[in-house]
Amino acid sequence: MKAIRSQEAMQRSVATSPVYGRRQNELYRRTRLMRAAIRARSADRLFPLIMEECDSFREVCETTDPPLDYLTPTSRAILDEVRTINREAGRPIAAYTHDAGAHVHVFTTQPRARSIARRLGAIPGVGETRTLRPGAGVRWIRTARSKDPSVELRGR
């Protein structure tokens, strides 16, 4: 379990991080650009934005008083390896993000998934890599408890 729960950590960040306000101002722009990149099916545009968002989140954590650092040495090695992969390719072919913990998630295109998973799997401390693909999406389900279809969403 985390030493500081997410709700308390967020409250600390709002109160003490000098970059929290700037991040809030960036979110609309970044989200708009991400949506446009997804609609255009442009990994070259999307991947840098995913990493920019992740790095912005981490900067807030690191500038919170006291600093919040949930990453492990293995997590940091994965982030570094993704940067190396992109540098070697000369363009963004993968993107990293992580939750408010040590779990790193890497995005890439299907043709590169195996080779990138192999590289990341070779990092000491990586216990498992999983390759996931988009699902069928969501559908509305009405339940006896609620007439409002927005209450429950389930994957197909």
UniProtKB/TrEMBL annotation:
Molecular function per GO: diphosphomevalonate decarboxylase activity
Coiled-coil regions listed in the entry: none
A GO term from the CC aspect: cytosol
An annotated GO BP: isopentenyl diphosphate biosynthetic process, mevalonate pathway
One Pfam family this sequence matches: MDD_C
Mvd1 C-terminal domain ranges (all copies): 2-120
Annotated transmembrane regions: none
Stored PANTHER family: DIPHOSPHOMEVALONATE DECARBOXYLASE
Name of the featured protein: Diphosphomevalonate decarboxylase
